[in-house]
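Can anyone check this?
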Amino acid sequence: MNENIKIIDILKISILKPSQYVSLVGVKLRKILLAILIACMIPGIISGVSQSIFIGEAIDLVADVMKDDENAFEIKNGILNFKKEEVKIEENSSILYVNANKEIKDIDSLRSILVHKDMYSAFLKDGISVKYLDQKAEVKYTELLNEEQFNNESVLKILEGAQGFKYLIIPIEIIGIFVN
């Protein structure tokens, strides 16, 4: 055994490649780990940045919509009050749909509007229906909100806090690729 190898290097080799304990030296292990790390960082950064941009654009779009007085809303005692009768905001394969006259039980009657989208968020009189690819969820406002009243200002406060979340996506993607 080479006496120039540090204890930390011996631990790394024995933990990562016990079958090759004798054949590996510290320099080779560092090169291997560095290559694996670089190989994971490149797609991780690309994927993380693209997802961060997508999330940032979505947050900005929702914030712009919430700042517009025409889109003023209020959820009080589990019921949505909205100025407009209906709102549809479509972008690529997703849609944001708001209708304060329809209830969650009426979601099937909206299939002609929502069925051709990979992702939708439907804000209805008594709750929200969300679909992403093949997954679908429905929740009533009374189950979702702890507050008796929820409005545009509440959403804008939440979005301010969510701005930092988009930057967490990059290291999460790198770690996910490294682990896989």
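Reply from J.R.: I decoded it. The chain has six helices and eight strands.
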